[in-house]
């Protein structure tokens, strides 16, 4: 038999074995399929960074027409659920009890000020425990005020706001729907789970169960060992990505503005980087527990916190920004956000893709260098 | 198939029959921690295995057997020396070596999620066996291993013996010229053990394969053509088993106990006598090996009635092994129980009783319809191969698992109702010594003492007792993880006995422990039983049941027989086998040959 046919036979054997194990082992299925689905549904439906139907206390110390009209504008907004409080102190009690998240107070001289063409102050108090949400509520409140002011101005009535107003437009994610931002980012997380955590775990499991020793005494070469783990989990990860993309576009209605083929090619690069990390871990660690810990700390947590998936990296301290540059997920989250919401913007995609390529090659080369056919402790 | 084709790239000088040659092999492992010492697993070991030869690598745990096999298979690189396999250097040409040898690691290396056929396919793929050859080879391997009826069964669902045979089939997938087997028979039932040896001999004598087989079972050495005895990394002796026998010829005796004297009593007495190298109980008689310098049977003190029953015996490998082994320190001498064999065995009240005990895991019956009773001061053995249901039974007895069905009373209490109170009177030593390896001996004792409600002066008194009784005083500030194997076992036993339990449960206390420590263990157990402690012990070493008063043999969750060792051995007695061993009895019971007789011993 030729070298090539022997190689093909070994590869086919390894791939078949891995596939059967994945299909028959409930823990692999749970990690590769169930967990991603749970995360998608959780983030797609449950977790939302948007503020809608914010409970708001309205204190009307002035009962004149302009005050009542403004209150009605708040009541009509889909961002707020308004409850009327008899006094400011009652409203504050509600705030303390977390029954409301903000207070809008129109003081007794509100209408009088407006009549005299003076600036009428509107007091807006917001629960600032969650700073991001507080800013969102503030902005929504300002929006309502501005619209009301513009309306009065158009009617030729005295307005408390200047005639020139800022017109905001949110680009790419017009509705500022956080799901459009979170669901594509999750794909990075799911691929990290499969590529890094699952791969490191299955190799450690072979050590623990003693099958690795039996495999190592067969005439396998190191490249066979590397490819034997790389290929099956590459395909598994890409399948997970495909499933996530399909769900994102159909079920969660996330717009995909870039091309699907570019998405697949760049995802493949990220998958290789994630796998490279997982294989590096598995070359160094032979216990599942330790493998899981290391992959969570080096793969999963950075993908959550240092990738720009949940938090904007631009607003983090400089040291963290620097550290984030060694996290492959950072580049991929940028890529995937761009592809989903903006389109094939090559000036963004190419540098990030290059970074992923470098990392993938580096990690896999290091993993290959550390794979051994000896039992000697690493 | 019997012709051996030499690989074209092998050393042409290998025209001799040698398939494996180890030359002055030394292997050291770097210490895991900075301050720990370098571990020397092998030291200057030379060895040769010929074509068609079954060579045994015999020694206790930690002797270096696995290290040697792994070096031969190219999995480890020797620190010094070389191993030449079929003319190839196992470290330099490991790929070439690996395509010509079959290797079965200790845990058989099977994928439990894959079926029998899928496991074989995988190894055939990895070894590059062409499809046409597989069609010829599979039926033969399956027939030889008796796996032909189950090609679609998952390896995880096979019994221990069947896993072992599948592991062997996978190692043989490419007609290797050398077969390396690492403790293939550990925890496997005697029937499967016997079958494995049959296969090994067919391979060696029929196909001319050289076999190097590591084993901790000393009786298996007798079955090898050539034996290499390893101890703590050194080659103590080698040669055919007969050469080992000759070393102790004339020094081995058997004492048939006089009527009314339990062999255990003679055993305890002789274990302390000077001039005796080794003493065991075998098939109801006391076997002893005298020291090399003692005149035959004269140098030690023996009551005349006992001496009357003494006669010379044919030596076996174990006798030679014990005579060769360096004595480590003063052997265990129980001070508390001086016994001249006069006292009759008192039969106490029943302290453990089970009736129709069973336990199911889903549809799988781990234990079925188990009934027995144990009386105060008895040593009761639960015997069977791995997977027989011994540990499950044990966990039910100790209240660690709830009983699935049937009745269970321990220390007069129904374990299903008052578990905590029954447990206070139990001592339990788990299969893996459950010690905190980072804590010192003293801290381990303190922790377990407090866990059982001991404190203050009483705890101190019990700890002092433990130091004295188990010889642990010198080790009290050492971390438990750093203790030598025998001492770990002593500490584990001390923690189980601190609160002075009435009943002591010991789960596989002797597995992975060297023969010296095993002997010491049984002497100690004997002493506790004489003080009125009831001992229930599991083991997969069939011959250890001789130390029990009564025993139960189980297999696949079912009871094969209950009775005294004498009664159970008698079940296998036949014209061709006038003095059967416990292992013969197990095989006879498992194969149903003793079926008619077994009802007699069944309660």
Automatic annotation (TrEMBL), chain A:
Family matches, as InterPro entries: ABC-2_transporter_component (IPR051449), ABC2_TM (IPR013525), ABC2_TM_bact-type (IPR047817)
Its membrane topology: Multi-pass membrane protein
GO molecular function, one term: ABC-type transporter activity
An annotated GO cellular component: plasma membrane
The species this protein was found in: Desulfatitalea alkaliphila
Stated family: Belongs to the ABC-2 integral membrane protein family.
ABC transmembrane type-2 domain residues: 148-374
Keyword presence, Cell membrane: yes
Name of the protein this chain belongs to: ABC transporter permease
PANTHER family the UniProt entry points to: MEMBRANE COMPONENT OF ABC TRANSPORTER YHHJ-RELATED (PTHR30294), MULTIDRUG ABC TRANSPORTER PERMEASE YBHS-RELATED (PTHR30294:SF29)
UniProt entry tagged with the keyword Lipoprotein: no
UniProt keyword list: Cell membrane, Membrane, Transmembrane, Transmembrane helix, Transport
Subcellular localization: Cell membrane
Residues that span the membrane, as ranges: 29-48, 181-204, 230-254, 260-282, 289-311, 348-368
Automatic annotation (TrEMBL), chain B:
Gene3D superfamilies noted in UniProt: P-loop containing nucleotide triphosphate hydrolases
Domain ABC transporter: 20-257, 352-581
Record keywords, A-Z: ATP-binding, Nucleotide-binding
InterPro entries for the chain: AAA+_ATPase, ABC_transporter-like_ATP-bd, ABC_transporter-like_CS, P-loop_NTPase
Keyword Transcription regulation found: no
Any Pfam family matching the protein: ABC_tran
SMART domains: AAA
Tagged with keyword tRNA processing: no
GO MF entries: ATP binding; ATP hydrolysis activity
PANTHER family named in the record: ABC TRANSPORTER G FAMILY MEMBER 20 ISOFORM X1, ATP-BINDING CASSETTE, SUB-FAMILY H, MEMBER 1
Record protein name field: ATP-binding cassette domain-containing protein
Organism in which the protein naturally occurs: Desulfatitalea alkaliphila
